[in-house]
Write a structure and sequence with these properties.
It comes from Phascolarctos cinereus. This protein is mainly β. It has one helix and 21 strands. Strands 1, 3, 5, 6, 7, 10 and 11 form a seven-stranded mixed beta sheet that branches. Strands 13-21-20-15-16-17 form a six-stranded mixed beta sheet, with no helix packed on it. It has a four-stranded antiparallel beta sheet with strand order 2-4-9-8, with no helix packed on it. The N terminus is likely disordered.
């Protein structure tokens, strides 16, 4: 199961039969098709897998890179062979939706002009769990990304996360450590732990493994998770040879099947 943020290279659909002569297009139709013949990648949620609880609503988001207007594209969400939601050229194509999702989905379009789409599933059920694929198509070019939704029956053991209240300061070239911990104390070794700086993934720990390949490129080879206190719910992120560009807000996020919480830490690097 691939739980990292997905980036899939796109491909073009063959739309003409072999030997057929393409029909010439002119005027606004030609301009419109040329305008949307762009290449792009599709990315899913940074925090994966996405966890929801029975009876709640869940938001599933994906976005294009580079940013571009998706309002005239085809956007489709599927789970296995089932069409969860489909949008085409400004219209919701509800007639293709699988019966299990009818009346329970809505596409939020506020950020579509910047290439981001969010689908809301109302009153999540255990049967909604699985791998979802978000698919964009512009003209003959399309791309997609997949990620997992886990659904828990109820929250068994909620927790909160706390980090240092004060600003963390360091000088360029030094190593710095950022720590956060669970309250009440509990074993975090089987949890997912994500560290972000703004929207960039700094570090991901999942099922006892470090998923370094999903890191932002600027942090690769410079981070380490100190795990000696994880059994008591404390994790420490070490960033080596910090740079001024490493400054900013960091988020420490713990996630289990039953609960999730996060804390925020501010880091300032002096040149």
């Amino acid at each position: 199961m691939d739980l990292k943020e997905s980036h899939c290279w796109g491909r073009k659909r063959k739309t003409e039969k072999f030997g057929a002569k393409p029909q010439a297009k002119a005027g606004p139709e030609l301009f419109r098709e040329m305008h949307i013949q762009a290449t792009f990648t599709v990315s899913g949620p940074l925090a994966q897998p996405t966890v929801a609880w029975v009876g709640e609503d869940v938001l599933l988001s994906c976005h294009l890179s580079p940013k571009m207007d998706a309002r005239e594209m085809t956007v489709k969400w599927v789970r296995g062979p089932l069409v969860v939601h489909m949008y085409r050229m400004g219209k919701e194509m509800m007639f293709v939706q699988a019966p299990a999702f009818q009346g329970r989905t809505k596409m939020l379009r506020e950020d579509m002009a910047e290439g981001k789409v969010t689908m809301r599933i109302h009153q999540v059920q255990l049967s909604d769990a699985g791998q979802y694929t978000c698919y964009f198509q512009a003209g003959t070019f399309y791309n997609e990304t997949s990620f997992d939704l886990q659904v828990a029956e109820h929250r068994k053991q909620p927790f909160s996360v706390a980090g240092p209240a004060q600003l963390i300061q360091a000088k360029q070239g030094e190593d710095v450590t950022l720590s956060c911990e669970l309250f009440p104390k509990m074993n975090a070794q089987d949890m997912t732990v994500n560290w972000f700086r703004n929207q960039t993934l700094v570090y991901r720990y999942l099922n006892g493994e470090n998923l370094e390949e999903s890191q932002g490129t600027e942090f690769q080879g410079r981070t380490e998770l100190l795990k000696h206190d994880m059994a008591e719910g404390k994790v420490t992120l070490k960033i080596q040879q910090v740079q001024v560009s490493d400054s900013g807000p960091y988020t420490c996020q713990f996630q289990s099947l039953d609960s999730h919480s996060e804390a925020h830490i501010e880091l300032q690097i002096e040149g």
